[in-house]
Predict the 3D structure of the following.
Amino acid sequence: MTLVEKIDQLLPQTQCEQCGFRGCLPYAESLSKGESNINRCPPGGIPVMKSLARLLNQPETPIDPECGTTLPLHTVYIDETLCIGCTKCIQACPIDAIVGTKKKMHTVIQSECTGCDLCIPPCPLDCIYIKPSEEAFVPEVGLSDMQKIRANKSRARYQARQKRSENRTTITKTLPPQEKILASRSSDADMLSLIAMAKAKTQAKHQERE
Ligand code: SF4
Ligand code: SF4
Ligand code: SF4
């Protein structure tokens, strides 16, 4: 196993980007070259920092507050009565843990969600909420057995998504330029008017209640 792979095995694989990299693997690559500090992974918190310190023979150090805080383990869920099917959360989820299609209700696959929270800010209806995890055990050093199982699943899903995205880019590159522009224009306008209508409806509901 290479050093990058050994480091990657220690990381929680939420792919949350809080370390400042586009996922756990790029952070592992940077650590392997000595270009990053071991305290940049809030989801892993102190236990993961300690395991990195041992592997890389470095002193232990508190988590860098610039990267955020370590939240208790959690997943997220969607209030399906509010969801308008804009697909923004699906696009943001790095591990394909959301299912749904355009203008239809979306749902989070609870067994796969890592609680990276990347889907929350893009939701125009603010209808994605945090749900505390029942697996609250945090070990002294490294990941718990349950976290390792989740990390292995999450890594595989992340890699599959990356692969699919690369394939899609290759296909899109082969489309004539006019078709690319027309396709993106019509879907954007469609979705913007849908969001505006849904927001107006939600506001009207609130006003009725008041
Ligand atoms: S889980 Fe840690 S290493 Fe992975 S992307 Fe998030 S902060 Fe970076
Ligand atoms: S559903 Fe949201 S919180 Fe869960 S893994 Fe996907 S983006 Fe992260
Ligand atoms: S971003 Fe929000 S409104 Fe859009 S599909 Fe996801 S949950 Fe539904």
